[in-house]
């Protein structure tokens, strides 16, 4: 099984090695321009907002969580 | 120079390179990019249902994928599966250990899981032959409390723990498939990506980490918070991560830019974030705080556009149903509320 580690048994040197090795991986990441990310983020939000009930609200008679007034519910 | 000093120097050097690389791609801020957009209108949600039945603090809740059922966990020693439309209790499951801190609903609806100070993740089969809900597996290996758990399927679950690690389990055999180590503080929360290939964890070392489930590696680490990260979630399209911290802020980190895009904070908010959930489109961020309220943020403009005030104690958990129709809050006041 990969990565058998009990944190309690790691020495400070072990932890420092892990941290160093992890940063060696992260430094190689290819990063996108934030402008591209922001544009995509805005587009993703705008694309879904019309169907977002918490933003748009919902008509009382279409609301599945509306108050059950009177009568009985048999389920 | 001693080995420790050399390793620290190497790591610091690499961290400086990462900081530089992040600056290089920062050609705009989200604030600048959204300057032309309008603030979303004031959001006023009403309590539609109150789920009554727990006898002590509620610590966790999770919606089922069918959007009407949810499960909650309370330190009264029970897991309750609720029909949120009728407020009926579908199942009331007594737990061996009442010190529960997390619960999860399997995507199939066949199982629920929970865990806490017993350091274990207990899996319950809801669809047993005789109709009784029984413990199916007890996943034991963590050396610290279970803070969060999330199913990948009926055969795999991921857990996060106070022992600083996360574990991917094979439910069938009850054994650990992969241990994800790297955090230097208690792991408090985890969330699985929409495509089930990655997960993120938030910890008491103030960082969030993105993990590749199959490669068993940590891909990215996000810093910036000044205290424990208690809550974490994916933005609906899976390209960004949202965190909530004891430093009273929430942050949005973009995975492709490998950095924070914006912080959700207000000088009037000084208490920790306990829980968070984005709305269906990601336009709104609902975050629960220690001051008993839920603040609703416009995720683009980073301004508060609403408050859910209705609980008499800390809001410990929050979730938005998968069709986005409603939000559920759970509190130390022992009640769950459904809002829309």
From TrEMBL, chain A:
Assembly description: G proteins are composed of 3 units; alpha, beta and gamma.
InterPro entries: G-protein_gamma (IPR001770), G-protein_gamma-like_dom (IPR015898), GGL_sf (IPR036284)
Topology versus the membrane: Lipid-anchor
Name listed for the protein in its UniProt record: Guanine nucleotide-binding protein subunit gamma
Domain G protein gamma: 6-75
Keywords carried by this UniProt record: Cell membrane, Lipoprotein, Membrane, Transducer
Top-level taxon in the UniProt lineage: Eukaryota
Function: Guanine nucleotide-binding proteins (G proteins) are involved as a modulator or transducer in various transmembrane signaling systems. The beta and gamma chains are required for the GTPase activity, for replacement of GDP by GTP, and for G protein-effector interaction.
Entry's family note: Belongs to the G protein gamma family.
Localisation per UniProt entry: Cell membrane
Assigned GO CC terms: heterotrimeric G-protein complex
Keyword Membrane: yes
UniProtKB/TrEMBL annotation, chain B:
Keyword Transmembrane: no
WD repeat windows: 51-92, 139-179, 180-221, 222-263, 308-340
Coiled coil: 4-31
Top-rank taxon: Eukaryota
Keywords per UniProt: Coiled coil, Repeat, Transducer, WD repeat
UniProt keyword Transmembrane helix present: no
CDD domains the UniProt entry points to: WD40
Biological processes per GO annotation: signal transduction
A matching Pfam family: WD40_Gbeta
SUPFAM superfamilies: WD40 repeat-like
Family statement: Belongs to the WD repeat G protein beta family.
Protein name: Guanine nucleotide-binding protein G(I)/G(S)/G(T) subunit beta-3 isoform X2
The encoding gene: LOC106605091
